[in-house]
Amino acid sequence: MAQGPYSDKVMDHFMHPRNMGEIEDASGVGEVGNPACGDVMRLYLKIEDGKIVDAKFKTFGCGAAIASSSMTTELIKGKSIDEALKLSNEAVSEALGGLPPAKQHCSVLAEDALRAALEDYKKKQGTA
Question: Which tens digit of pLDDT belongs to each residue from 62-71?
């Protein structure tokens, strides 16, 4: 049962986050923060042959930020870079069963972290 404004999915990804941690030899790392709320999100990607084979995150923030990070890693695993670039904060929020308006910025943070990690990967590949 959902607690307060959060869906069951948000609570599940907060209580049991998927893919938490670091990737030692990450292909790309993106770190973003929201100074207004203090959330900081770091996303690690392992990319092979243009596909995201692994994704992990470390997030310092509220439950919605952790849930958004967790869901993002789930949504991008196995996807091509182009497919991952199409992932929007709306899709993250929708996959979580919706976020309260005051927490919508958490899904935006996840989208920004993904874009930053893909940008980092492209720089390392010399294709940025």
Answer: 999 999 999 9
Q: Would you give the DSSP letter of residue 39?
A: E
Is pTM beyond 0.85? Reply is yes
Q: List the CATH number of the domain containing 78.
A: 3.90.1010.10
Name the region of 23 (left: φ>0; alpha: ψ -120 to 50; beta: rest). Answer: beta
Residue 33 lies in a domain: yes
Q: Give the total number of structural domains in the chain.
A: 1
Q: 6 is written with which tokens? A: 């959060």
φ, ψ for residue 24, nearest 5 deg = -55, -50
Active site residues: 37, 106
CA-nearest of 30, 88, 89 to 65 is 89
